[in-house]
C-alpha cells in the first residue's frame, strides 16, 4: 500500500513536467525581473513549441499580442525569465530586429541579427552536455554599439530530445519589445530573415543527440554579432 501510494505521488510529481512546458514570461532589465507579459508578448499556444521552421510563428510564437515597450540601455545586461526551468536538452539563441516604426506595431518581417547563444558541449563523441539544462533565467549583454531605436528582442530555446526526425525539434520562443537608448553606430551582421534562417535539415536541428553520441554540434543560425 505504502509503495502504491509512493508510486502515485511520484506520477503526480512528474505529471506537471509532461503537461506544462517552460515559457519565457518576463524581461529582465536593469537587474529587475519585470512583470510577466509586461514587455514580453504573450502567445496563444500556452506552452506548446513551434516545430515548423518555415512558419511566421517562428518569429514571436503563435498569436503573440502586443506588449509594452521597455527602455533599455545599449551595453547593459538584460535577459528573460521563464515560468519554470528548462527541462529539455537543447540550445539557445537571442536575436534582435529593428522596427521600421514602433516595436509595438512590428511583425518581425524585417532583418534579424544574433546577439547571444548557448550551444552544446561535445567531447569527441564520448559525451554531449547541455548548458541550458535547468536554467530559469538567461541574461546577456546588448552590444554597446547597437544603434538606438525600437527593436524586437527574441529568445528561443531549441529542444532537441525528439530532433532525430524532421520537424521534431521544438522551438520555445518569445519576443520582448525594447526602446534602445545610449547606443552607437554599429552595423549589426550577419542579417537573416525569420522564417528563413533555419531549414528543417540543418545539422543542429535534425540530429539524434543520443546515439551515436555526436562528436560535434553545429549551432543553428548565423554567428553572434558582438558590436
Ligand atoms: C521610456 O522613456 C520615456 C522617456 O524618458 C518615458 O516617457 C517612458 O515612460 C519610458 N517608458 C517606460 C515603459 O518606462
Ligand atoms: C524611447 O527613448 C527615447 C529617448 O529616451 C524617448 O524619447 C522615447 O519616448 C522612447 N520611446 C518609447 C516608446 O519608450
Ligand atoms: Cu516536452
Tell me the helix content: under 10%
Instruction: Report, as a whole number of angstroms, the end-to-end distance.
Output: 62 Å
Overall pLDDT, averaged? 94
Number of strands: 11
What is the N-to-C succession of helices and strands?
A: HEEHEEEEEEEEE
Spatial order of the strands forming the largest sheet: 3-11-10-5-6
Bound molecules: 2-acetamido-2-deoxy-beta-D-glucopyranose, copper (II) ion
Percent of sequence in beta strands = 25-35%
Helix/strand class = mainly beta
Overall 3D shape: globular
Main sheet: strands, sense, barrel: 5 strands, mixed
List unreliable stretches of 5+ residues.
10-17
Q: Please tally the helical runs, counting DSSP H or I stretches of 4 or more residues.
A: 2
Radius of gyration: 18 Å
Question: What this model shows, in words?
Answer:
With 227 residues, this protein is mainly beta. It is built from 2 helices and 11 strands; from the N terminus they run αββαβββββββββ. It has helices at residues 2-19, 57-60, and strands spanning 24-29, 32-33, 70-73, 77-82, 90-98, 113-118, 121-122, 128-129, 137-141, 149-159, 170-181. The chain has a 5-stranded mixed β-sheet. Strands 2-1-4-9 form a 4-stranded antiparallel β-sheet, with no helix packed on it. Strands 7-8 form a two-stranded antiparallel ribbon. A hairpin with a 2-residue loop joins strand 1 and strand 2. The longest helix has 18 residues, at 2-19. The protein is globular, with a radius of gyration of 18 Å. Copper (II) ion (CU) binds at residues 21, 88. Residues 68, 70-71 line the site of one 2-acetamido-2-deoxy-beta-D-glucopyranose.
Amino acid at each position: 500500500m505504502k509503495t502504491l501510494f509512493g508510486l502515485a505521488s511520484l506520477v503526480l510529481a512528474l505529471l506537471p513536467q509532461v503537461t506544462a512546458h517552460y515559457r519565457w514570461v518576463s524581461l529582465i532589465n536593469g537587474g529587475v525581473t519585470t512583470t510577466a507579459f509586461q514587455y514580453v508578448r504573450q502567445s496563444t499556444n500556452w506552452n506548446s513549441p513551434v516545430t515548423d521552421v518555415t512558419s511566421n510563428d517562428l518569429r514571436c510564437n503563435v498569436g503573440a499580442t502586443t506588449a509594452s515597450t521597455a527602455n533599455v540601455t545599449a551595453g547593459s545586461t538584460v535577459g528573460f525569465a521563464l515560468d519554470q526551468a528548462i527541462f529539455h536538452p537543447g540550445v539557445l539563441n537571442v536575436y534582435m530586429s529593428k522596427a521600421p516604426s514602433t516595436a509595438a506595431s512590428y511583425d518581425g518581417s524585417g532583418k534579424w541579427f544574433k546577439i547571444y547563444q548557448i550551444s552544446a558541449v561535445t567531447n569527441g563523441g564520448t559525451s554531449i552536455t547541455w548548458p541550458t539544462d535547468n536554467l530559469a533565467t538567461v541574461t546577456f549583454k546588448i552590444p554597446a554599439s547597437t544603434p538606438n531605436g525600437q527593436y524586437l528582442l527574441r529568445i528561443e530555446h531549441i529542444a532537441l530530445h525528439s530532433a532525430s526526425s524532421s520537424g521534431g525539434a521544438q522551438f520555445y520562443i518569445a519576443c520582448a519589445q525594447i526602446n534602445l537608448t545610449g547606443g552607437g553606430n554599429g552595423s549589426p551582421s550577419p542579417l537573416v530573415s525569420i522564417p528563413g534562417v533555419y531549414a528543417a535539415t540543418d545539422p543542429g536541428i535534425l540530429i539524434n543527440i543520443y546515439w551515436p553520441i555526436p562528436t560535434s554540434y553545429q549551432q543553428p543560425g548565423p554567428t553572434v554579432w558582438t558590436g
